[in-house]
Write a structure and sequence with these properties.
It is a single chain. The protein has 113 residues and is mostly helical. The chain contains four helices and no strands. It has one domain. 74% of the residues lie in helices and 0% in strands. It comes from Mesoflavibacter profundi. InterPro entries: SdpI/YhfL. This is SdpI family protein.
Length: 113
């Protein structure tokens, strides 16, 4: 049975949020370059073609990160790590996921454009 502490694991929470936001961005990407919604970096906002590519590519990476974070969060909860250690591991994994999403998207933008 999944208890409240398991659901409050930062890895699981961020994983679910990443998955939902990634799906929203994948199915409803911003049509035009803007400063409010979407994957916004100097490279992605260079032109419309790079913008469109960055939205699709980054949203896929976000969904993958979300699913992996959720699964790892469940595993961490099952292992029953100390709460403080669980928090540190979760924050490290979330940071690595964000880095991976940005790094891979920027590399693909650099290669393609």
């Amino acid at each position: 049975m999944i208890d409240l502490n398991t659901l409050l694991n930062p890895c699981i929470l961020c994983g679910v949020v990443f998955s939902i936001v990634g799906a929203i961005l994948f199915y409803f990407p911003p049509k035009e370059i803007n400063l409010i919604y979407g994957y916004r970096t100097i490279r992605s906002m260079k032109n419309q073609e790079s913008w469109d590519f960055a939205q699709k590519f980054s949203s896929k990476k976000m969904i993958i990160s979300g699913v992996l974070l959720t699964l790892i969060g469940l595993i961490i909860s099952i292992i029953s790590l100390d709460n403080q250690l669980q928090l540190y591991v979760s924050l490290l994994l979330i940071g690595l996921s964000l880095f991976w999403m940005i790094f891979t998207t920027e590399n693909q933008l650099k290669k393609r454009f």
